């Protein structure tokens, strides 16, 4: 099988390739094509992958190209992890929002809207070209904002695009371990939108063990989300929110922490990855002090340890515990998804898919994040209980904003873009929304289409 990785020069690509190296079953991926617009980044990541493959028999062959159409031809799966505007764009998103006193996070609030406005036109173009050059391919979308981008692409290739995120899986695994269960065997009752969902139950051997966790304050304070939100708030909610809901439930504290930080998250990652790519780009005449794989692994460890540092600072919980550094492993989710489709190995995964009739408050085409049954015909959302009123209200409000972003991207309407910002729960002023649009147009040439 042929796997195409869009954003193939991206820092997280070795995670995907590493997962493929351990897959020896028949029908596995044998060819990986990396696509990126930056040939230098492609070369650096190709070196890391070569280090990974050293000594591994029958490792998937790797090629790299800057030609998108060439990459897509004959693809069985397309993994999309692009970053329109790069990390400099993310840093700019943060600066503009924080200057207006609102959140500038990558996928939440003003920053997420700006990122969506930049990314949707590019993602739509990719979807159209997939339909032209690889009509039978399945697209696995990890490009943020993942739910919004998946919905944009689904309008052109339907259910053949499936969004993934490691956040809900990581949450479920941490809770399962707290409850003494095997994370690989627990069923995670999780519902919402991407980066806006709640774990409402966790079944181990058919029994929901979440009430036991919610009834024990000491246990609640012993894992990442419990420390971040506080035991009392989790007990009030009767669920465990996705970590990104900290931006909503503790918005003032989060914004203040971001404003007081020496450097925003995007600026930190921009500088960190610039050093990494510079080190790997020295060339054979002046080899780096460590192997490409060692350099990548050291950079990744620092990245994971500093994840959501501002939120932990706002909550007063200090550094991440060692046991919380494990993510849900989006590369493992991607591999499990590809296996299930390619081999008809039925499995259950939390994915971003079209709603159909799952949540009655949303229409059939709205992309949501829920447990899905996966087989050779794709991902099928499972029936879930309705969300409580407060969660339904937030989901509907944010989905309405996503729809305005999609409309603005399609129409090029500046007024619709202002509406998207103004309607978001974390942007509390139409005047601020107007200034945000002008601010983002000023720093992102790609938003010039908003006339």
Q: Could you please describe the fold and organization of this structure?
A:
The structure is a single chain. This protein is α/β, with parallel strands linked by helices. 50% of the residues lie in helices and 15% in strands. The chain has 20 helices and 13 strands. It has a six-stranded parallel β-sheet, with helices on both faces. β8 (196-204) and β9 form a beta hairpin. The longest helix has 25 residues, at 109-133.
- Strand residue content: 5-15%
The averaged pLDDT comes out at: 92
Write down the oligomeric state. Answer: single chain
Number of helices: 20
Radius of gyration: 21 Å
What's the β-strand tally?
13
The secondary structure category is alpha/beta
Helix content: 40-55%
Major beta sheet, specifics?
6 strands, parallel
Low-confidence runs (pLDDT<50, min 5 residues)? none
Shape: globular
Order of the strands making up the biggest sheet: 3-2-1-4-5-6
Q: What is the distance, rounded to the nearest whole angstrom, between the alpha carbons of the first and last residues? A: 43 Å
Indicate the topology.
Elements: E1 2-6, H1 13-21, E2 31-35, H2 39-53, E3 61-65, H3 68-72, E4 77-80, H4 86-99, H5 109-133, E5 138-141, H6 146-157, E6 161-163, H7 167-178, E7 187-193, E8 196-204, E9 207-208, H8 210-214, H9 217-220, H10 224-229, H11 231-237, E10 240-241, H12 246-249, H13 251-260, H14 265-280, H15 292-305, H16 309-315, H17 330-343, E11 347-354, E12 367-375, E13 378-381, H18 389-411, H19 414-423, H20 430-443
Parallel strand pairs: 1-2, 1-4, 2-3, 4-5, 5-6
Antiparallel strand pairs: 7-8, 8-9, 8-10, 11-12, 12-13
């Amino acid at each position: 099988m042929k796997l195409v990785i869009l954003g193939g020069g991206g820092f997280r690509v070795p995670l995907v390739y590493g997962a493929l190296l351990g897959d020896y079953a028949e029908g596995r991926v044998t060819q990986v094509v990396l696509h990126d617009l930056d040939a230098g980044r492609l070369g650096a990541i190709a070196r890391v992958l070569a280090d990974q493959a050293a000594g591994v028999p029958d490792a998937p062959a790797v090629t790299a190209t800057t030609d998108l159409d060439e990459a897509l031809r004959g693809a069985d799966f397309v993994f999309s992890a692009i970053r329109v505007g790069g990390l400099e764009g993310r840093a700019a998103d943060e600066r503009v929002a924080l200057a207006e006193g609102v959140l500038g996070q990558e996928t939440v609030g003003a920053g997420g809207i700006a990122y969506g406005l930049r990314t949707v036109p590019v993602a739509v173009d990719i979807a159209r070209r997939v339909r032209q050059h690889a009509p039978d391919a399945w697209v696995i979308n990890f490009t943020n904002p993942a739910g919004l981008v998946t919905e944009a692409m689904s309008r052109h290739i339907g259910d053949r695009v499936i969004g993934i995120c490691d956040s809900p899986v990581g949450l479920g695994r941490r809770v399962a371990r707290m409850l003494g269960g095997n994370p690989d065997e627990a069923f995670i009752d999780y519902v919402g939108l991407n980066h806006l969902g709640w774990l409402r139950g966790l079944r181990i051997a058919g029994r929901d063990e979440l009430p036991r966790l919610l009834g024990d304050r000491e246990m609640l304070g012993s894992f990442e989300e419990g420390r971040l939100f506080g035991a009392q708030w989790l007990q009030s909610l009767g669920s465990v929110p996705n970590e990104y809901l900290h931006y909503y439930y503790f918005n003032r504290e989060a914004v203040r922490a971001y404003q007081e930080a020496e450097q925003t998250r995007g600026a930190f990652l921009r500088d960190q990855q610039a050093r990494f790519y510079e080190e790997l780009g020295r060339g054979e005449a002046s080899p780096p002090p460590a192997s490409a794989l060692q350099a990548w692994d050291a950079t990744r460890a620092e990245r994971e340890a500093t994840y959501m540092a501002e939120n932990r600072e706002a909550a007063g919980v200090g550094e991440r515990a060692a046991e919380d550094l494990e993510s849900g492993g989006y590369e493992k989710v991607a591999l499990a998804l590809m296996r299930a489709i390619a081999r008809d190995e039925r499995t259950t995964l939390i994915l971003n898919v079209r709603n159909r009739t799952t949540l009655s408050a949303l229409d059939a085409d709205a992309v949501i994040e829920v447990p899905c049954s996966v087989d050779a015909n794709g991902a099928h959302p499972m029936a879930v209980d309705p969300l409580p009123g407060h969660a339904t209200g937030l989901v509907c409000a944010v989905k309405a904003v996503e729809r305005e972003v999609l409309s603005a991207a399609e129409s090029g309407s500046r007024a619709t873009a202002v509406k998207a910002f103004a309607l978001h729960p974390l942007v509390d002023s139409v005047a601020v929304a107007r200034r945000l649009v002008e601010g983002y147009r000023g720093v992102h040439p790609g938003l010039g289409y908003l006339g």
